[in-house]
């Protein structure tokens, strides 16, 4: 129980902020979401264009609450911010930059009915920075060999992309049937599966055993989420059910993998 309570704030930050960051990158790579779905009119899409950045802003805010809970005292956060070289400061700076871009995105989308694509591209750049810095924060943790392997940064980046692809699938349910987003989900999950294997091999080399959790993460996430995305594209699942399944399965897979990661470092 103590392990779960200690890991929970880290899971909240990396999962919720990762959902937002990964979604911005996937949106940029896939050319933009149609939030209302494939059967919506252009006017309906314009009225709801603010929904995607608003959801991401809320997710980022929830994630940052997890960081504050992990630190325990606001003063610790202030002290960390005062040291630009610290990884917590780097995470905070990238989170703030990403949040500012999202706020601008929401404002444009609400006022104009659409956000300029360069705003989304800038948001994607800030999102990539946040994902990489988050992974580096654990990679540079001294005295924790489970976290200092080459798979650590890819584990966070590719996990976030798998999360983001699932969120994009839910917000633009028609895109799974169209194929482009289905391919993005499957590609992200396959890449995540590869890094899960690499991380598992690293843990085995240093004598840490998280095989059961990593295998479960691979089955629930990369395997099941990919099957759900493919089934939706093939018309075997409805767009709504398929999108929800992809997001839930991807999220559970990433959470299991990250719990294994945090637990291995705290053993």
Report what the structure shows.
The protein is an all-alpha fold. The chain is built from eleven helices and no strands. α1 crosses α7 (152-171), α6 (117-139) packs antiparallel against α7 and α9 (180-206) packs parallel to α11 (239-266). The longest helix is centred in the N-terminal third of the chain and has 29 residues, at 2-30. The protein is globular, with a radius of gyration of 18 Å. The mean pLDDT is 86.
How would you summarize what this structure contains?
This protein has 267 residues and is mostly helical. The protein has helices at 2-30, 42-47, 51-71, 74-81, 87-112, 117-139, 152-171, 173-178, 180-206, 211-233, 239-266.
> How does the helix and strand content classify structurally?
mainly alpha
Question: How is the biggest beta sheet arranged?
Answer: none
- The first-to-last residue Cα distance is 14 Å
Low-confidence blocks of residues: none
Q: List the secondary-structure elements in sequence, H or E.
A: HHHHHHHHHHH
Say how many strands there are.
0
The percent of residues in helical segments reads over 70%
Q: What coarse outline follows from CA principal-axis ratios? A: globular
How many helical stretches?
11
Strand content: under 5%
* Integer average pLDDT: 86
Rg on CA atoms, Å = 18 Å
